[in-house]
Design brief:
about 400 residues; mainly beta; 2 domains; 4 helices
């Protein structure tokens, strides 16, 4: 297992299956955040934030040629007390959690007709998840969804993406003081889909936010979770799982911005890859600003390469502007099967193919069990089993 941890700025560890490097967060964006698409130049692929993305597979989302000519079937199943509204771009909740940071996100903001706002009243504890099902029926669509969680409320939100689509969207999470929120976003698109989405979370004082991003389908999927804190005591946990098949490009770019004191964050993303041209990208940015004393943060990315022809780019970044912190660290590891684990299992009579499946299931099981939604956990384990059946 090749590993890079706490490297000096600009250093790299490169091999046939992975690249891990570190650079400052401040240099990662070519333009400041903006709601206006005109503020972002058309990317050419040499910018830091676009250098891993195959622009020709974005179907025009990045250069303005994509037109809203598609259909997306959206269904929201919400428990009693939760309200669902369709609002205009001038609603005060739109953009409160974050601003587009690249041209596709700005294009999505400029192009949606109506935004959907899902609100959970303060102090309400939901006994069932809020389920949002988005099924693409072809063509290009843009969207904006806001989840507004009141103070001291508790909610689980499941966002499920299926079907075929070219989709650009912004998804905002406004987490009130003392609230507890778990969000599960599943990308289980058809193999031809393109999905680019920026997730913005604004975490209130003493609030807890868990993000679980699961990516299996799509030709190109690029998800950009971003976390900001509105007051001290906030905690963020970002969990990710991805299984990248032949020809797929799956990219997850994260930013946790610690700008207020005494907040915590923990990031764990794991991926498995198989097949010629399978390409996974993980960018983990953590910024600890000068005012963020007492910060406690850690991020980790691990990748398991199952076959030849797959590629991983894993780039953890940590920028610290104050020495008055509890702790900060990051790690990135990419490798093939652990021969010792396989030997141990085979020495106890388990056939080689079954042993490989057990190793991969164990690799993912720790994260799947943290989702907390039984039907989603069962579905993902079944999906992992189906993927493994193709590789062994």
């Amino acid at each position: 297992m090749a590993e890079a941890q706490n490297l000096p700025v600009g250093s790299t560890t490169a091999g046939s299956v992975a690249v891990a490097a570190e650079s400052t967060v401040a240099t990662r964006m070519s333009a400041p955040p903006s709601f206006d698409v005109a503020d972002f130049p058309v990317p050419h692929g040499r910018e830091e934030e676009w250098r891993f993305t195959p622009l020709d597979r974005l179907k025009g989302l990045h250069d303005g040629t994509a037109k809203a000519d598609g259909a997306l079937k959206a269904e929201i199943d919400a428990p009693d007390g939760v309200t669902v509204e369709s609002v205009g771009r001038d609603d005060a909740r739109i953009g409160k959690a974050g601003t587009p940071v690249d041209r596709v996100a700005a294009q999505a903001f400029s192009s949606f007709e109506k935004a959907t706002v899902v609100s959970v009243p303060k102090e309400q504890v939901l006994d069932q998840p809020v389920r949002v099902t988005l099924h693409g029926e072809g063509g290009t669509t843009f969207g904006h969804t806001v989840f507004d969680i009141g103070a001291f409320a508790e909610a689980v939100i499941v966002i499920d993406h299926t079907g075929d689509a070219v989709r650009a969207a912004n998804v905002d999470f406004i987490v009130g003081d003392g609230a507890k929120v778990t969000v599960v976003s599943v990308q289980d698109w058809d193999d031809t889909a393109v999905h680019v989405s920026q997730h913005n979370a604004l975490i209130g004082r003493d609030a807890t936010f868990k993000s679980v991003v699961v990516t299996f389908g799509g030709d190109l999927v690029r998800i950009h979770p971003r976390v900001n804190y509105a007051g001290p005591g906030g905690e963020a946990e970002l969990i990710g799982l991805y299984f990248t098949d032949a020809g797929q490009h799956q990219e997850h770019r994260l930013l946790v911005d610690h700008a207020v004191p005494h907040c915590k964050s923990n990031v764990v993303y794991k991926g498995a890859l198989q097949g010629e041209g399978a390409h996974a990208v993980w960018i983990g940015d953590v910024l600890i600003e000068a005012a963020a004393e007492g910060t406690d943060t850690y991020e980790m990315n691990r990748n398991l390469v199952l076959t030849d022809g797959a590629r991983v780019d894993s780039v953890p970044n940590l920028e610290i502007e104050t020495g008055e912190i509890v702790g900060a660290g990051h790690a990135s590891a990419t490798g093939r099967f652990d021969d010792e684990q396989l030997f141990y299992l085979q020495s106890r009579g388990i056939p080689a193919d079954d042993a490989r499946r057990l190793v991969v299931r164990g690799f993912f099981a720790e994260l799947v069990q943290q989702i907390g939604v039984p039907d989603i956990e069962e579905r993902l384990l079944a999906k992992i089993e189906a993927e493994l059946a193709e590789s062994v």
